[in-house]
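Incident log entry.

Two folding requests arrived from the same account within the same minute. Monitoring flagged them as a possible duplicate submission, but the sequences differ. Recording both here for audit purposes.

Request one:
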Amino acid sequence: MSAIIEFKNVNKIYQSGEQQLKAMDNVNFTIERGEFVVILGPSGAGKSTLLNLLGGLDGVSSGEIIVNNNHIESFNDNQLTEYRAKNVGFIFQFYNLIPTLTAIENIELMNDVVDVKIDGLEVLDSVGLKDWANHFPAQMSGGQQQRVSIARAIAKQPAVLLCDEPTGALDTNTGVLVLNLLQDLSNNQNTTVVIVTHNALLAEAADKVIRIKNGQVESITINETPKKITDIEW
């Protein structure tokens, strides 16, 4: 395996008047290609800041972020836009689907930003929703909407899939289905999956667990025998 993500001495400071908030404090870690990684920590620990930096949604105060051999901390706005469009898939807690578009239209909208033609029906089939292609988000359950959002994220075949509490709005059984799908993407398609969560149980399924506290890496654990999502006692 080879590293696809590297944080080197990353700091992020937010200024509020005369006050400074150090959201990232000299953070260092690597993530290998195809790893299923869980970033754990309490509310306010810096998890979302880390994800925003990795996704090119925010910039560092100092340090380096290397993704696929690219120093994204030095990218300008146009380069960051291209990076987000072609290299990163985002999955959020609240789906972020366009309500006036059907499931297949939400996915094929990605054709405007990627070079490869996306077959929305094929991607929906991969998440078990082929028969729901022409339904609008309001006609679907939360779990189905989240699977559409996953389909949209993976349609462009991103190098990295970033997930911010992807099951936070789902019941346990539906959440397990969604997490199992994400684990399968890592295991079978070599997609690098990074999940930010406060749910410590998910650590049992991770290849690597990065624990964040007060903007710092508290620990990094390599799991030699990760469990299947479906084997965890939720």
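Request two (distinct sequence, not a duplicate):
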Amino acid sequence: MSVAPRITSRSARLAVVACGAAALTLGVADTALACNISEFSAEASCSGEQGVITVVDKDASGTPATVSVFLSTDGSEKLIGTQDVTGTREGATVTFKENWQPNATYRVHVKAGNQVDEDIKPNVTAPGKACATTPEKPAPSTSAPAPSKPAPSKPAPSKSAPAAPAPSNSASPAGGSDLAETGASSNTPIIAGIAALLVAAGAGVVFALRRKTSR
């Protein structure tokens, strides 16, 4: 048997081994770069006084993914939000604002092309203590204020003239208002004196006539 066929057969076997190794290497590399649900994680936490649910994507292949968060309560679900994320080896983060209640449960679903379409396991459970939240200020009322009650008005002072005093039955003093009303003047005492003299003179005449008659 010649040396040349042996060398050719040996080279063929080496080539097959090299191709197999290359295929295995490419397969491992492709698997390593494939997006996988294990590269996603989620948790509920507090950012200051705000509750949040954070999802981290450490997909080194950079496959675009869509993350959806659902609140699970008594068998029913409520969509909290949906965001897109492109993973990195260090980890890309998306945050959902959610004022979660203590021990609330959330389902986080990931859809990345044709490679991933499933939930992050296990579901996210919120801590047993809620974040401290600042109470909201009440919104200003747009309704018109109630009209205030008018203050009781003071009674207006009466403008009618005061009632005239009742006439007095008592005698007015001499020289008072009665004399003025009858037209009396300062000559009245003189006239009264003259009248008295005349009366006295008349009485004297009558007395003298009676004496003469008696004689």
